[in-house]
Amino acid sequence: MVTNGTNGNSKKREETAARIIKAIGECNGLLTMAAKKAGVGHSTMNRYVQDFPSVKQAVHDAKESMLDFAEGKLYSKIRDGDNTAIIFYLKTQGKSRGYIERQELSNPEGESFRVEHDAKDKLISAINRIAARAGEAKDSQEPDGEGS
């Protein structure tokens, strides 16, 4: 049964929600395609996803199902010896075994954090120091205008 958690919904809204849920399943959770298939606009689709928990659940279920399908295909490729699939899997799932291309940092609680380097400010600072030194050197080499 399609429910949105509130009382007083018209039969038409319930029927539309049921049609949308069916379309979501047929379109693997892709909302624009499901909206077209259900004969509603994209904004109506979004409103039904927000208003009806059963529609929201249908979107979640369809996307999870497609994710499972894609993972199954990936595993098949790995079993077939596809190097690209193997490398992809190790890079994304084998991090704990050292299969990483970048260093990941974490605090003592294991939460990752981001380290940002402000290269632009460092570069500007270095240029200013060089320019200041060049100016000092130029000043010490120029005659002071006396006895020229």
Give the fraction of residues assigned to helices.
Answer: 55-70%
SS strand fraction: under 5%
* Overall pLDDT level: 84
Cα-based radius of gyration, to the nearest Å: 31 Å
Sketch the major β-sheet: none
Could you list the spans in which at least 5 consecutive residues all have pLDDT below 50? Answer: none
Count of DSSP-assigned helices: 6
Structural class: mainly alpha
The number of strands is 0
N- and C-termini, Cα separation: 101 Å
Quaternary structure type = single chain
Give the overall silhouette. Answer: elongated
Topology:
Layout: H1 11-26, H2 31-38, H3 42-51, H4 53-79, H5 83-93, H6 119-141
Helix pairs in contact: 1-2, 1-4, 2-3, 3-4, 4-5
How would you explain this protein's 3D organization?
The chain is an all-alpha fold and 148 residues long. Helix content is 64%, strand content 0%. The chain is built from six helices and no strands. It has helices spanning 11-26, 31-38, 42-51, 53-79, 83-93, 119-141. Helix 1 crosses helix 2 (31-38), helix 1 packs parallel to helix 4 (53-79) and helix 3 crosses helix 4 (53-79). The longest helix is centred in the middle third of the chain and has 27 residues, at 53-79. It is elongated, with a radius of gyration of 31 Å. The relative contact order is 0.07. The model has no long low-confidence stretch (mean pLDDT 84).
